[in-house]
TrEMBL record, chain A:
<keyword id="KW-0472">Membrane</keyword>
<protein>
    <recommendedName>
        <fullName>Heme exporter protein D</fullName>
    </recommendedName>
</protein>
<keyword id="KW-0812">Transmembrane</keyword>
<keyword id="KW-1003">Cell membrane</keyword>
<keyword id="KW-0997">Cell inner membrane</keyword>
Automatic annotation (TrEMBL), chains B, E:
<keyword id="KW-1133">Transmembrane helix</keyword>
<feature type="transmembrane region" description="Helical">
    <location>
        <begin position="97"/>
        <end position="118"/>
    </location>
</feature>
<feature type="transmembrane region" description="Helical">
    <location>
        <begin position="191"/>
        <end position="214"/>
    </location>
</feature>
<keyword id="KW-0813">Transport</keyword>
<feature type="transmembrane region" description="Helical">
    <location>
        <begin position="20"/>
        <end position="38"/>
    </location>
</feature>
UniProtKB/TrEMBL annotation, chains C, F:
<dbReference type="InterPro" id="IPR005895">
    <property type="entry name" value="ABC_transptr_haem_export_CcmA"/>
</dbReference>
<dbReference type="InterPro" id="IPR003593">
    <property type="entry name" value="AAA+_ATPase"/>
</dbReference>
<protein>
    <submittedName>
        <fullName>Heme exporter protein A</fullName>
    </submittedName>
</protein>
<feature type="domain" description="ABC transporter">
    <location>
        <begin position="2"/>
        <end position="203"/>
    </location>
</feature>
<dbReference type="InterPro" id="IPR003439">
    <property type="entry name" value="ABC_transporter-like_ATP-bd"/>
</dbReference>
TrEMBL record, chain D:
<feature type="transmembrane region" description="Helical">
    <location>
        <begin position="129"/>
        <end position="149"/>
    </location>
</feature>
<feature type="transmembrane region" description="Helical">
    <location>
        <begin position="91"/>
        <end position="109"/>
    </location>
</feature>
<feature type="domain" description="Cytochrome c assembly protein">
    <location>
        <begin position="8"/>
        <end position="184"/>
    </location>
</feature>
<keyword id="KW-1003">Cell membrane</keyword>
<feature type="transmembrane region" description="Helical">
    <location>
        <begin position="63"/>
        <end position="84"/>
    </location>
</feature>
Length: 65, 219, 204, 246, 219, 204
């Protein structure tokens, strides 16, 4: 193990801000992208099921009348 | 009514989300072009920085002036505004404010990042942002006058620059001056209070003047 | 009451008309007629205060319209050649905004109903740029349903409309006149509108 | 083995195929990332010149590489879509752009955070850095253009034009290195020369790059699925999908 | 036909004499704004000069791109061009050429005067003018692609900058580089021949690409 | 001969029409009819090659129009909703340039005569922006007098025209048909055009 302690690890030989700043932002970006892309799909699916329902409704009305 | 106009213009801007972004990126790109043309020496760049950022902000704000009235003019909405039972100055004020929200605010938020690229020290960054915050609304307000006067003239896009740039110059000088003064260790207070005075004056005078210009252009 | 006294219009080096006189009472319809380029649009723009007559004056309830300013504008609706329809907004948004500009704020529900009535049901949420010419025109005209003003000034309101829509407009105008409204309009199409008092103003 | 490629080039079958592949790539990405980070932070020794700051390399270099690769791949798919009018390839191009822009941003950000301790400044205007910035603009231009156009077919084609024209720009900017005195590290990984850095560092970096590849593929597949659904929402198979989901 | 298009666009430009003048004045004003923002030291200004002049030329040319197709699009002329029995690439080439005659040529003629303001030595002025002469047609040609792609999109004016500026960058680097190289006593030959190569390449490729983009945009 | 086979038009998520078939011979007139938004303009733009049908094909003398390209364009004149009239140019310049674009270069004299014939005598040298709506429309239509093409595709050519001009257009179209021309047109106004073969295409 090259790190003596947790705080040593976090300090990164004095460069903690830069190193962790990089990895943190990378994490945020990746997490953000994943959330966004799943959100996009979820709202889309909700939208689609609404459309689907309304078209089914229309069809039923047509056959009824 | 005032709120209606702002809301409407913001709605239009949101419908075209790209509009807001593109003004911003125009700003970013212009600022980033200079080092390409001038070369990468940091010392020169640092001296240029306030001037370049301010000129870019000015151009970005100016270029989007065309949008302020032109499309309303083309499709006849502006006619309707003139014969609307609302105060025209207020309408114009609303449009200028919406313009600032869409073009000015993003620039102000972006400026520190660009300042860092030019290696400006921390307090100069602060002054740069503050000066832009005071200065960009002035640009939108003065711009409204120019946009109103050049309405419907083709080549208006460039004509408006011609009319408006001379009026922008004091803002530019004191805006960039504030940053330079603070970088040189002199306080930026005097410059800032002048910018504030410009802002007040243009808030009072510009909407009225622009409304008058609109009436003239539409006659 | 809308009155024009000795109106004269000069465009460029051409005098389009002179000595035009009329007076329009409640329930009255004035059809401005004349060949292309005879000055109909020019006259209508004068009546709105968008252009100044070279000579003569226009009075609304006895007072010069220029002097009245907003008081006049609150009583009048003008629909010109240009529709004032924004390509990027939906039909509903267009209607709400244009009527707010005219001084009447309406909610979504009401805008929706007005558009429905104009035959745009199901198209309320499309951006205006994908609408057909006639549909755009209908969006513009829908304002008449919600504006609540007395005086309507309509410049060729029927262009691009199909026969069903023309009939609709006809009904709408007749109803407006019945309720004591006034209409000044131009059109090159044949249209019969029954009104208490119809006058035709013929420009050379 | 004869694979029926045409079968997979229809959006519908690609949708299902991609659905099956996503978990594979996601798991690979997570595992590789864990291994890479472990090597990067616990195995690789301290650099004698840069101290611990060099550990940014494990994210910086993969991000920088991905940003460039993804642009070329995006332009390629867009070009195929334009030339052969295959909707699927255009959709993939559309789906790649945000991920590419994200990696470009990361390369810039991590580079800036690295530059401050190493060069004493967040940013210099040297060729490598500038070209990376321009790459970001190219991505953003592509995305804004597509966002500004409502008709998806037109958006695809217009996007393809600008992506392809933009490719021409990349080598030009890249070669402008000659006209600039550059602070940035040159290529230290190459096939002909023996690696200049410690093997553990190199392995860590390569594994992280692989992890980024896997991640990019997974996210692009997910986004492509979303784009497919958006574009094909009126087709029968999407309707059935909904019927099945009910 | 080619000549017809050029003649028509020039006629339109003449009908609006102000158009030509305003692009030029925009150029002049931008170049003159920088000393205001940056401060009056001659040494710094001299180093900045090629970059500033080139960036200004680039902006001026870019800003007038909107006019290249937009008005033809709005009034339906562009539709007529698409269904005209003439080669569309040739039409586009004509329009790009007309654009250059109207915006590029005046800039080239004006540049030496502005260079003198920045105290550039004589041969640097010569190189500046020559580099602009080679470079501005490239700007018009590349710009045609951007203008075609953003046709009818609102906020197009700024979107076009976003698309086109990254492509302008090589021209900027080598254009400004040529002047700097000659000021530094190295020959400008290499830069100039690269600019020439850009010009040839864009003459061959750009009209075709822009024509394709136009068809895409008008679909 | 112009033929459409099984044409289908989809705009956004709406199918406007499908299975539209027609064939137009020399001397034939086709009136496309239908309420607002039924797809008339969309159909006409397809016939010009400005839009691609979702399905089906359009043939000119037996060959696909896309494949024909310029050969087709040289035989056709399309006048759409938009006039292609430049505000800053005079009527004469507008006419000369638009017909040059269409492949026919005409001299000043000829342009002058055409405009005169369209009732714009004395206005040839005014910039188009001061013309009235109807006059602008006449400038656009004047192209038909000089184009010399066989197939005319006219989208609501009669909007903004006064009765005299409508009559003029009627005569012009009849003459064209007599000489073996073909016309595809839409209009919401009543107009009787005598032709060898008139067909009406009704869109829902
Ligand atoms: C914002 C600033 C920076 C940007 C945009 C940037 C961009 C890039 C790019 C595009 C690459 C890949 C290029 C290639 O493979 O040849 C790269 C690789 C690399 N960068 Fe950076 N960089 C930045 C700052 C830094 C800093 C400050 C350092 C270290 C002092 C650094 C060290 C490296 C190293 C070691 C490589 C790997 C080179 C190789 O092995 O091929 N970078 N960077
Ligand atoms: N500057 C000018 N010089 C000469 N004539 C002009 C000028 N400006 C306008 N005109 C003429 O004034 C008239 C304007 O008419 P206006 O638009 O009011 O006609 P209109 O009756 O509405 O016609 P339409 O039925 O075609 O709409 C036109 O005949 C036009 O030629
Ligand atoms: N993106 C879209 N989504 C939904 N509907 C659309 C879209 N684009 C166009 N439409 C519809 O397509 C039709 C276009 O019709 P078109 O312009 O061809 O009509 P038209 O027959 O010429 O009508 P008009 O008589 O009014 O000129 C309209 O009904 C419009 O609402
Ligand atoms: Mg009129
Ligand atoms: Mg139509």
């Amino acid at each position: 193990m090259i790190w003596a302690s947790m705080s040593d690890f976090l300090d990164m030989g004095g460069y903690g801000f830069y190193v962790w700043g990089s990895y943190l932002v990378a994490l945020v970006c990746i997490a953000g992208e994943i959330i966004l892309v799943f959100n996009r799909k979820r709202t889309l699916l909700r939208h689609l099921s609404l459309i689907h329902q309304s078209t089914k409704q229309e069809k039923r009305n047509e056959t009824a009348s | 009514m005032f709120l209606w106009i702002i809301q409407r213009d913001l709605l239009l801007a949101m419908r075209r989300r790209s509009d807001v972004l593109t003004t911003l990126f125009f700003f970013v790109i212009v600022v980033s072009l200079f080092p390409l043309g001038v070369g990468p020496e940091m010392n020169i760049l640092r001296t240029m920085a306030p001037g370049v950022v301010w000129v870019a902000a000015l151009l970005a704000s100016m270029l989007s002036l065309g949008r302020m009235f032109a499309s309303d003019h083309l499709d006849g909405t502006l006619e309707q505004m003139l014969i609307s039972p609302q105060s025209l100055s207020l309408l114009v004020m609303g449009k200028a404010l919406a313009h600032w929200l869409v073009t000015g605010v993003p620039l102000v938020l972006m400026a520190p990042v660009l300042g860092i690229q030019y290696d400006l020290p921390g307090d100069a960054l602060l002054v740069l942002t503050a000066s832009l915050l005071l200065g960009t609304p002035v640009l939108s307000l003065i711009g409204a006058i120019g946009a109103a006067l050049t309405l419907g003239l083709r080549g208006g896009g460039v004509l408006v620059s011609l009319l408006v740039l001379p009026l922008y110059i004091p803002v530019l000088i004191f805006g960039a001056g504030a940053v330079e003064a603070s970088a040189a260790g002199l306080g930026a207070g005097a410059h800032m209070s002048l910018l504030g005075a410009f802002l007040l004056a243009s808030l009072v005078l510009a909407p009225w003047t622009a409304a008058l210009s609109l009436r003239i252009s539409m006659e | 009451m809308l009155e024009g006294n000795n109106l004269e219009c000069v465009r460029g080096d051409r005098r389009l008309f002179r000595d035009v006189n009329f007076s329009l009472e409640a329930g009255g319809l004035m059809q401005v007629q004349g060949p292309n380029g005879s000055g109909k649009t020019s006259l209508l723009r004068m009546l709105c205060g968008l252009a100044t007559p070279a000579h003569g004056e226009i009075r609304w309830n006895g007072a010069e319209i220029r002097a009245l300013g907003d008081g006049y504008y609150a009583a009048m609706t003008y629909l010109g050649h240009l529709g004032g329809v924004k390509d990027d907004l939906t039909a509903i948004e267009n209607l709400r905004i244009s009527s707010a500009l005219g001084g009447v704020e309406i909610d979504e529900r009401k805008a929706h109903d007005a558009l429905q009535h104009m035959g745009l049901g199901g198209r309320e949420l499309l951006p205006a740029k994908v609408l057909s010419q006639g549909q755009r025109r209908r969006v513009t005209l829908a304002r008449l349903l919600v504006c609540g003003t007395v005086l309507w000034i309509l410049d060729e309101p029927l262009t691009a409309l199909d026969t069903a829509a023309v009939k609709l407009m006809q009904g709408l105008m007749e109803q407006h006149l019945e309720h004591g409204g006034m209409i000044v309009m131009t059109t090159h199409q044949e249209i019969e509108i029954t009104a208490v008092a119809t006058q035709r103003l013929q420009l050379a | 083995m004869a694979i029926n490629w045409f079968k997979y080039s229809s959006p519908a079958s690609f949708y299902f195929l991609a659905g099956k592949m996503i978990p594979l790539f996601s798991i690979a990405a997570i595992v590789l990332c864990a291994v890479g980070l472990y090597i990067g932070f616990f195995v690789a020794p301290t650099d004698f010149q840069q101290g611990e700051a060099y550990r940014i390399i494990f994210i910086h270099v993969p991000a920088a590489w991905m940003s460039m690769f993804l642009y070329v791949i995006m332009a390629m798919w867009a070009g195929i879509g334009l030339a052969f009018n295959t909707r699927l390839s255009s959709m993939i191009a559309t789906a790649i752009a945000p991920t590419g822009a994200m990696f470009t941003f990361l390369a810039l950000w991590t580079g800036a955070l690295w530059g401050k301790p190493m060069w004493g400044t967040w940013w210099v205007w040297d060729a490598r850095l500038t070209s990376e910035l321009i790459l970001l603009f190219l991505y953003i231009g592509f995305m804004s253009l597509q966002a500004a156009i409502d008709d998806p077919r037109r958006a695809d084609k217009a996007g393809a034009m600008i992506a392809l024209v933009g490719v021409v720009n990349i080598p030009i900017i890249y070669f402008s290195v000659k006209w600039w005195n550059t602070l940035h590290q040159g290529a230290s990984v190459s096939i002909t020369q023996s690696p200049k850095m410690a093997t553990t560092m190199l392995t860590g970096m390569l594994i992280m790059s692989l992890a980024c590849w896997m991640y990019a593929i997974a996210v692009v597949l997910i986004r492509t699925r979303a784009v497919i659904l958006e574009r094909e929402r009126h087709t029968a198979w999407v309707g059935e999908l909904q019927g099945a989901a009910r």
